[in-house]
Amino acid sequence: MDEHGVIPEPNADESASTTNRNVTAPQPAPGTPPNRPTRHLSKRALIAIGVTAAAALCIGSVGGTWALTSTLTSLQAQASSNALAEKERNALEKALAQQRAQSGQSSDGSGSASGAASGTSATAAQSAGIVTITSQMPYQGEEGAGTGMVLTSSGEILTNNHVVEDSTSLTVTVVSTGQSYSATVVGTDLTDDIAVLQLSNASGLTTAKIDTGNTVATGDGVTAVGNAGGTGSLTAATGTVAALDQTITTQSEATAVSETLNGLIETNADILAGDSGGPLYDANGGIIGIDTAASSGGSQTAGFAIPINSALGIAQQIEAGAASSTVTIGYPAFLGVEVAATPTGETGSGTASGLGQLGGSTGTASIAGAPIADVVSGGPAEAAGLVAGDTITAVDGAAITSASDLTAALKNDKPGQSVSITWTDSAGQSQTATVTLTQGPAA
Length: 443
What we know:
14% of the residues lie in helices and 33% in strands. The protein contains eight helices and 26 strands. Helix 2 (53-61) packs parallel to helix 3.
């Protein structure tokens, strides 16, 4: 789903393997075999690692690192309430949490990289100012788990965008006290994978120990802390800084576009699913980065963190309410349609899956416009009378010839705003209706 409530459908010929977003890691030295790991950023991360409890047991059966041998695990532990029974979900989360405790013990080269220690429970000092985050994504039938850091005593939280992306509700738990709060999204930056949240009715919170003045160097000792496996408790894994100013690029996953993250800290600390948004501590106990991605291939494991100064700069822009081409303030307006792929495969940009994979474009696919594969039940589009098979041809009188046109037309609209939608139905009849946009999931 893009930030305007338009849900582009995946291309009909897109293979199942595209549920994994491949990451192009920093290039190896000459003569070194290339390593092309995979990153799961979608809200189906755990399902991509193992669809059933049996797959979860397979993860644990080889030292808890089976999924890490060839994939870049999502740092947001996920489970689908529709696709997984509660028993299967619990087994999957447990298996992922065990990965950290068992890392480095596998004899097949799939353990943590040399120099990185196995994880342990986070200390009180490492837990101070750190939160766990649970996100509800009803349009995908899923729930997510991640980590965050307290920026202010009144409850401002820093985390990754992919921890909250597509969520409609958030529950944040302060680890040191066990107190849970509902949270809203202040703003997000999809491009740089940063989000700022605000807890409801919070005060007197201990803030995270952020180190903005320390110079990070290769070889420095670090500790990655997070909600590994989405279990709700924090674990810590030590390692060293392997490289600085690294770039990774993800491949499109389902309807999510590829993205490139720059200037990252690379570490061999064993970063796992669920750690997203968690702190990367230096040897003095100061936070120097945000755990964001992890890859693995052969005998080497690499984790990536956004430098804390870069993250804070984006957070300050969000706090100031300064929207831009990359920063979205608050929640976007929501139309609630899934746009079918066109014959050329064009589905718009800035997207992530909202309804999953449905059938191809039908009915009015030959008409220039944005063909609708499905509508969100109870959403504005359905209320206006749009159905699957219709093609949107204009918004507020401006012609729509593609899915990207529809996204662009709604770009500056706000929740509660009314727009005129013109479409051609499956019988070839043109219709127009005024639609009141609602508040959509986090961008």
